[in-house]
Amino acid sequence: MTVRTPFRIGLTRDFLKPDGTIGFGDIGLELIDAAPNVVWEFLPENRPVLGPDQIAGYDGLLVLASKVTAETLSQTDRLSIIARFGVGYDNVDVPACTETGVMLTITPDGVRRPVAVSVMTLLLALSHQLLIKDRLTREGRWGEKLNYMGQGVRGRTLGVIGVGNIGREVFHLAAPFEMRHLGFDPFLKTPVEGVDLVSLETLLKESDYVVVCCALTPETHHLLNADRLNLMKPNAYLINVARGPIVDQTALIETLTQRRIAGAGLDVFEVEPIAKTDPLLSLDNVIVSPHAICWTDECFQSIGSSACRSLIDVAQGRTPPHIVNREVMASSRLSQKLDRYR
Predict the structure, then answer these.
(1) pLDDT value for 1
(2) What pLDDT digit, counting tens, does each position of 281-339 carry?
(3) Hey, which residues are catalytic here?
(4) What whole-number distance in Å separates Cα of residue 284 and Cα of residue 280?
């Protein structure tokens, strides 16, 4: 009888709080516990960039924020999958994964609803000037409340940049508010019911709420620069729940300071964490969150379960969904690794 070597999974140590507990609560590890011949453990060190010595001996990695570089993968002959905890993967060298025969998976099914709910949270909070009214109440400035009239959303125009997994869910959640829906997505091949697909310039000119939902790529870096921000209406709000560098933050600060738009809701920034002295934080027409507005028990349980299922799929000889580098499936290096699990 042949005894199979267990499929070993390493979790980056940035999942842990200082007291050694998982900072996100339930992330679906019970799925791995129930899978036959699969074991997991946290990497012994928390490094911002994973070293090749850390990943030796693992078949799969569950990665939060640690970077995976070409150097990280330079000595691996066993690793077959990196399951990214989330949908962004700018911390992982995708070509290096493909070159070394490593699948990279993400968890779009886990973040779809939580991030879309976050968009609506920011949209409504900005529309009703929630933080300013909270401040007036706490400071006993009731007499000033007439100076901060909110903006109703019915009949307004919602523009979403990136009509993918999350963008479509934003439109779905916004449907009862009776808004006009505009979308910009040059990669979209089929129409979306109820959404008018327009150019980026048209979206910026006509939208009352501009929502950034696209991925950060070389093409989208500073997609919203000074010139494009100047296309927005004076009563419009910008919401970014994607990645900070998609918006030129210096240009945005100038736009907000000069009140050329009504305000912004930002969960992401060009540099994270944002410096306490950053002028953006002194503005009263901005709501900010530390790249965590969608962090709920539902969010992390869904993300974690999705990532764990991808790892288990590989351990049991199946092809997982949501592979970023699909071309790796033709890799002979990957095939040789997968043969061990089939």
Answers:
(1) 40
(2) 999 999 999 999 999 999 999 999 999 999 999 999 999 999 999 999 999 999 999 88
(3) 243, 272, 291
(4) 9
User: What's the confidence (pLDDT) of residue 143?
Assistant: 95
Q: How crowded is residue 46: how many other Cβ atoms within 10 Å of its Cβ?
A: 14
By CB atoms closer than 10 A (0-12, 13-18, 19+), residue 259 is: exposed
Structure tokens at 20: 């050694």
The whole-model pTM stands at 0.85
Secondary structure (DSSP) of 317-338: TPPPS-BS-GGGGG-HHHHHHH
Q: pLDDT confidence of 88, banded at 50, 70, 90?
A: confident
- Cβ 54 vs Cβ 74: under 8 Å: no
Percent of the chain with pLDDT over 90: 94
Domains in the chain, please, with CATH?
A: 7-106+296-338 (3.40.50.720), 110-288 (3.40.50.720)
Q: DSSP label at 129? A: T
